[in-house]
Structures are given as structure tokens and as C-alpha cells.
Amino acid sequence: MVHLTADEKSLVSGLWSKVNVDEVGGEALGRLLVVYPWTQRFFDSFGDLSSPDAVMGNPKVKAHGKKVLNSFSDGLKNLDNLKGTFAKLSELHCDKLHVDPENFKLLGNVLVCVLARHFGKQFTPQAQGAFQKVVAGVANALAHKYH
Amino acid sequence: MVLSAADRAAVRALWRKLGNNVGIYATEALERTFTAFPTTKTYFAHFDLSPGSAQVKAHGKKVADALTTAVAHMDDLPGALSALSDLHAHQLRVDPVNFKFLGHCLLVTLARHYPGDFGPAMHASLDKFLSHVISALASSYG
């Protein structure tokens, strides 16, 4: 469970309402693959990931980023029950996809960088703090069913 | 993850652009670290950590100077940062996990202030550079 103060909840929902979830998803996933290239291990079927431009322009990366961030967006509506919300996805990532949960933390931090770039001045230290709590909560929830 | 010539060139170019503002950004990165990762405040119990604190600003300047030194010595970070590593390991005794929090907040600060420059390739180069700095800082531990 993530414990956000009323101010933090307000900061998160206020900023998130202005996010183009589809675009930010592609941006965040793309940057994950560029900044931490070993994460490409999960995406052999995605085609050309040979350069930053290739990654960022790759339609499969954009589509998958959209999927991932829409899922994250669902989590934001259920901050009081992240473990429940992400239980099935957690099982999937462990049993079928075999993704090291460390990657969830990496993606969370990349997302924070993308939001900072997008929002500039509005992404105050307090806003960042609120989002760090959220991404940590989502990462923990996604790791919860691992065995 | 070696620092390529392209990585070094990218970091140097951005640093030139930051000019005299490195202290301001390092201070903001510290503020972000204390806010987003409250456990880091345990090392600064003797500081006034309220917004605008002169102590945090002074500390930001120290961090900025160290980073500028690092940028100037990317071919030998362990050598250039060995005294700082000794200090953090043996006197300050800061757990190295905290270096990553500050590194991340530096990236966030730069993304916030230089959105046009903070493309994916620059993001990658900066992240690599900071990883190397962190490695060098942690080298005296144990």
C-alpha cells in the first residue's frame, strides 16, 4: 500500500491528468531500452533496436510502452490496493515473462525523468517525491507474486 | 559500460552549457533527494534542511565542484575522486546506496531545466557518467 498525503494525491492526479499516457509510455519504454540496454533482452522480437533513434521510432516499442503505461495509469486509480490491482500482472511477469523485478524500478525512475522533462517547473521536489512513492509502490506490487 | 568518446563529448558539452549554474542545479538535486528519498536526511541531522537553506546551498556548491572535477577527469575518475571516496567511506561513512539517489535526482533536475538537451542519447551518456562517478566514490569502501 502506498501512503500518500492528501497534497501528494492532489499533485499526482493533477499532473497525471495532463499526461498523454500513450506518448509518455512509448517515451519511457524507449528510454529504458536506450539508457539500460540490457533491458532489450526481453524484446528480441521487436526488430531494430540498434540505435537511440531506431529504438525511439520503433512502432513495437511505442505500442508496448502505451500498453505498459495504461496499466500503470490503472494503478494510479487504485493506490490503496496496488497489490490487488497488479496481482495477475505480477504472476505473468514472474511465470511467463521471467522479468527481474529490478527492471520495474529502472522503468519507474525513467518515467520520473520523462515527467520532469515534460512538466519542467511544475515537477517540483514535492511532485517528484509523490511520484517516487507511486513508482516504488507499483514496482513492489508487480514483484509481490514472485516466487 | 565504458564511457565512450561520444558519451564524454556529450557530458562535456552539457557541462559547458550549465556554465556557472552547476551549483544551483546541484543544490536543487540535493533538495529533491531529501524530499523524494527521506532516509538520506539521516546524514544531515545537523543541517537546516528547510527550503532555501544556506547550508544546503553551500553543500550543493561542494557537490557541484566535485562533479565539475569529475567532468574534467573522465579518463581517471577513481584517481580524481579518491580523496572524496576516502572521506565518504571512512569519515562520513555514507552508505553507497545513497549515491544512486543523488545521481537520479541530478538527472531529474537536468531533465527539468534542459528538456531540449535531455534526449535519450544524452540521458544515457549522463546516466553512464554518473554511474562511473558513483563507482569511483564507492571505491575506497570496505
UniProtKB/TrEMBL annotation, chain A:
- SUPFAM superfamilies, from UniProt? Globin-like
GO CC entries: blood microparticle; haptoglobin-hemoglobin complex; hemoglobin complex
UniProt record, GO biological process: hydrogen peroxide catabolic process
UniProt keyword annotations, A-Z: Heme, Iron, Metal-binding, Oxygen transport, Transport
Per the database record, which ranges form the Globin domain? 3-147
Q: Which Gene3D superfamilies match?
A: Globins
What's a single GO MF annotation on this record? oxygen carrier activity
Q: Which CDD domains match?
A: Hb-beta-like
Family to which the UniProt record says this protein belongs = Belongs to the globin family.
Name of the protein described by the UniProt record = Hemoglobin subunit beta-like
What is the originating organism of this protein?
Zalophus californianus
UniProtKB/TrEMBL annotation, chain B:
Could you tell me which InterPro entries the record lists for this protein? Globin, Globin-like_sf, Globin/Proto, Hemoglobin_a-typ, Hemoglobin_oxygen_transport, Hemoglobin_pi
Q: Name one GO molecular function term.
A: organic acid binding
Tell me the PROSITE patterns matching this sequence.
GLOBIN
What residue stretches are annotated with the Globin domain? 2-142
Q: Which domain of life is it from?
A: Eukaryota
Q: Does the keyword Transport apply?
A: yes
Any single Pfam family the record assigns to this protein: Globin
GO annotation (BP), single:
hydrogen peroxide catabolic process
SUPFAM superfamilies associated with the record: Globin-like
- Please provide, in alphabetical order, the Gene Ontology terms of the cellular component aspect for this entry: blood microparticle; haptoglobin-hemoglobin complex; hemoglobin complex
Q: Which UniProt keywords apply?
A: Heme, Iron, Metal-binding, Oxygen transport, Transport
The UniProt record lists the keyword Metal-binding: yes
The record's subunit annotation is: Heterotetramer of two alpha chains and two beta chains.
Job description of the protein: Involved in oxygen transport from the lung to the various peripheral tissues.
To which protein family does this belong? Answer: Belongs to the globin family.
What protein am I looking at?
Hemoglobin subunit theta-1
Q: Please tell me the species this chain comes from.
A: Callorhinus ursinus (Northern fur seal)
